[in-house]
Amino acid sequence: MNIFESITSAAHSVFANRMRSVLTMLGIIIGISAVIMITSIGQGVQNSMNEMFAEFGAGTLMVNVRQNAANPATRRDMLTLESAAFLAEHPDVSVVSVASGSSARVQLRNPSETSHVQIIGADENLRQAQNVDVRFGRFLASVDVDRAAPVVVIESTLAREIFGRTDVVGETIRATFWMGTVDLTVVGVSRNNDPMAGMFGMPTTAYIPITYFQRILNRDDVVDQLLVIAEDLDRLDETATEVTRLLSVFHGNEDRYQVTTIMSQIDMLSGILSTITGFVALVAFISLAVGGIGVMNIMLVTVTERTREIGIRKSLGATEGNIRFQFLVEAMILTASGGIIGIFLGYYGGFALGSLMGLSPAVSIPTVVGTVLASSLIGIAFGVYPAHKAAKLDPIVALRYE
Predict the structure, then answer these.
(1) 103 pairs with which residues across the strands?
(2) Residue 221, Cβ neighbours under 10 Å: how many?
(3) 310: which of 92, 272, 294, 299 lies 20 to 30 Å off by Cα?
(4) Other CB atoms within 10 Å distance of the CB of residue 311
(5) What is the C-alpha to C-alpha distance for residues 353 and 355, in angstroms, rounded to an integer?
């Protein structure tokens, strides 16, 4: 029996028991499709996250007060509008913006429904610092900040939830803070700034003048964060160190401020996401091993069922190598077929799941190749023992088997 005949015979044996073959391949199909779906969704989330942070700009520094339980920050340590104005005078700094955040409930079209919104108190420079894309109207202006005007820039998603359309400049929304309820006039509608907000059920964002924000929440001149755009990207670390030093001098303290870059945030979150994706993918690979055990079990049953056939083939001159090769090919056909089906299900399943989550999955070619190789190796690894057992059968004993 030559190699071609062995392969043909193995394929015939697999397709002769279609239902059993499909059930045998099920573990392989589930494992491979799960690996591809998980890794493609994970890469899609990472790409969306990178795009979101990249929109802030690689040269943006985020400045926060360093919290220390043993030595808590005092009122003197807090960042203020004066802190921002002081930093803006430095030659290595291009733009300084301020931001403070609070949650609020916004009345929707249905009087009985409200939506959770993240309200950001900001100045006119935040548009550049966070690359806010205004679709209708305008962003906050310096006159809004100077007058503490009750105006707001909302995201298009929130505009649709409240008014059923996006061009709502001039309309009024009602926002309820823990300090009370205010009416805000819409001066602009922006594109959703966070592409992953819908996927994780995160609230939409609205921007109001920082001075009006401070008046509503009784925060005096304090802000939560400074956003600093550096002039020279090559001197980003030096600028971060200088910003920390200048703030310590201005506030008369030491080691109170933490300056982080967008790139460091991307690296940190990418590492966390890669770890989570890798762990879940490992769990999916375990299901591949379970599927391989299923293949081995079925092949052992097949050897038992075809004992007499093996005896006849050996009596007609088939060698142990012929028998071993035929059963090994059968195991590989099962796992390879399951692998191909799993690849298609994982590929299209990833895009279907991605559309529901509002992101574009990224299918990795190395992952696909790796899963194909994994399924082939599983076929070989778990097919060796049944094939060896079949090859070692005594032809006389096998011919007597009923």
Answers:
(1) 118
(2) 13
(3) 294
(4) 20
(5) 5
State how far the Cα of 146 lies from the Cα of 136, in Å rounded to an integer. 23
Please give the Cα distance from 341 to 138 (Å, whole number): 51
How many angstroms separate the Cα of 122 from the Cα of each of 104, 149, 154, 331? 16, 12, 13, 64
Length of the chain equals 402
Q: What is the rounded CA–CA span in Å between residue 57 and residue 130?
A: 7
Q: Which residue has the tokens 């460091």?
A: 264
Helices and strands: H and E segment counts in the chain: 14, 10
Identify the helix (H) or strand (E) that includes residue 20.
helix 18-54
Q: Are 19 and 326 in contact (CB under 8 A)?
A: no
Long-range contact pairs involving 14-20 (C-beta distance under 8 Å, separation at least 24): 14/330, 14/333, 14/334, 14/337, 20/298
CA dihedral 212, 216, 219, 220 (to 10 degrees): 50
Give me the torsion for CA of 363, 367, 368, 374, rounded to 10°.
-160
First CA to last CA across the chain, in angstroms? 25
- Helix, strand, or coil (residue 139): coil
The string of pLDDT tens digits covering residues 44-82 is 877 776 666 655 566 788 899 987 767 788 888 899 999
Sequence spans of domains, the chain: 3-52+269-400, 67-255
pTM score: 0.62
Nearest in space to 89 (alpha carbons), one of 316, 243, 252, 192: 243
Look up residue 195 and give its two tokens: 């592409």
Beta bridge partners of 136: 189
Angle at the Cα of 63 from the Cα atoms of 61 and 66, rounded to 5 degrees = 140
pLDDT tens digit string along 359-389?
778 777 777 777 777 777 776 777 777 777 7
**Backbone region of residue 202 per phi and psi (left: phi > 0; alpha: psi in -120 to 50; beta: other values):** beta
How far is Cα 101 from Cα 219, in angstroms, rounded to an integer? 11
The CA-based dihedral angle spanning residues 172, 137, 62, 89, taken in that order and rounded to the nearest 10 degrees = -110
Q: Of 388, 278, 372, whose CA–CA distance to 323 is shortest?
A: 388
Closest by alpha carbon to 210, among 189, 227, 191? 227
